[in-house]
Amino acid sequence: MIDFHCHLELFPDPPRVVAECVRQGLYVLSVTTTPSAWAGSAALVADAKRIRVALGLHPQLARERRLELPLFDRLLAETRYVGEIGLDGTPELRTYWMDQTYVFDHILSACQAAGGKIMTVHSRRAVTDVLDCLEAHQGAGVPVLHWYSGSQRELARAVGMGCWFSVGPAMLVGEKGRKLVAKMPQDRVLTETDGPFAALNGQSVFPWDVAKAVVALADLWAIDRGHVETLLQDNLRRLTTST
Ligand code: MN
Hints:
By secondary structure, the protein is of the alpha/beta class. The chain contains twelve helices and ten strands. The protein has one domain (2-240): Metal-dependent hydrolases (TIM Barrel, Alpha-Beta Barrel). The protein has helices at residues 14-24, 38-44, 62-65, 69-75, 91-94, 97-113, 127-136, 152-160, 169-173, 175-182, 210-221, 225-242, and strands at 2-6, 27-31, 51-54, 81-86, 117-122, 141-146, 164-167, 189-191, 199-200, 203-204. A five-stranded parallel beta sheet has the order 4-5-6-7-8, with helices on both faces. A three-stranded parallel beta sheet has the order 1-2-3, with helices on both faces. The chain is globular. The relative contact order is 0.14. It binds manganese (II) ion (MN). Manganese (II) ion (MN) binds next to loops.
């Protein structure tokens, strides 16, 4: 199974979570919210062959941490994966929109200059702006829109632009989320949890809870679980060998 977007170092007992991921043979992309979190996150999974770390600067921290962009630039050569990055248009974060767009533009330019990265992208209430930025930075790499929650029209545009999507159990609980996932190309979907931030029934989700997303996808796509897992593994292989 694959968790293509979670925050391993933010769980209460990260080494225990990493050990369990290894025990279960999970493929995990551990995303960071600040460049200064990179070193600790990378050290945490140094012995885990199927776990990768993404270098990020979360839009929610854009104002507070934009001074870490030089550190981002220095670390970028160490990884093929970038995230969590993006824009967040919720009203309290719109206040820092200039910082958000400055940081996102800077990161996309850096990825372009580096020849392209695999990027896990946050787009809550800002899908059109995120897609505009991506379009303005051709060659920045392959965007994987994480926990997509925009409109059907924006989804069609994202699909047309070649975006990938990572979908989690929390997103698949609701009717709106399921209708969106139904329109995503099956060959550009991966599973994620966004743990420990995402919750199901009031409990933080763990990486192995992607099993619940696999069950939901099997239902949605009307194929069996084994077939879903094969398809997701093929997708991951294609994504990581194409860039
Ligand atoms: Mn996240």
